Amino acid sequence: MSNARFRKAALALPGVIEGTHHGHADFRVGKRVFATLGYPDEKWGMVKLTPDQQAVLIDAEPEMFRPVPGAWGRSGSTNVKLAKIDQVTLRSALEMAWRNVAPKSLLASLETQ
């Protein structure tokens, strides 16, 4: 998985814009970050999950996912190893993270379609 494919998958979700966060590319819906690229280095991305979602993904795919070190990781922030993840698994993780922070109005509009 390349940075370009991660970026493309994140930007394909409704209402997403790209910005920067602490010197890394980030992906936001509304004003809330749900994913970043290049953290801790160019081999990794990050998705903002709940601790329960994080546990499920790490248990299922420990080669692809790990908690971000420290308090952020204990809160659900999860590193994604770009060299190991496939497109389907990445899209699933990004969508979970997107749903965790998307405005309720955007979520409601998707459910009525």
UniProtKB/TrEMBL annotation:
**Highest taxon in the source lineage:** Bacteria
Q: Which GO terms describe its molecular function?
A: DNA binding
Please tell me whether the keyword Cell membrane is annotated for this protein: no
Record has Nucleus as a keyword:
no
Q: Could you tell me the keywords of this UniProt record? A: DNA-binding
Q: Per the database entry, which stretches of residues form a coiled coil? A: none
Under InterPro entries, the record lists: YjbR-like_sf, YjbR/MT2646/Rv2570-like
User: What is the designated name of this protein?
Assistant: MmcQ/YjbR family DNA-binding protein
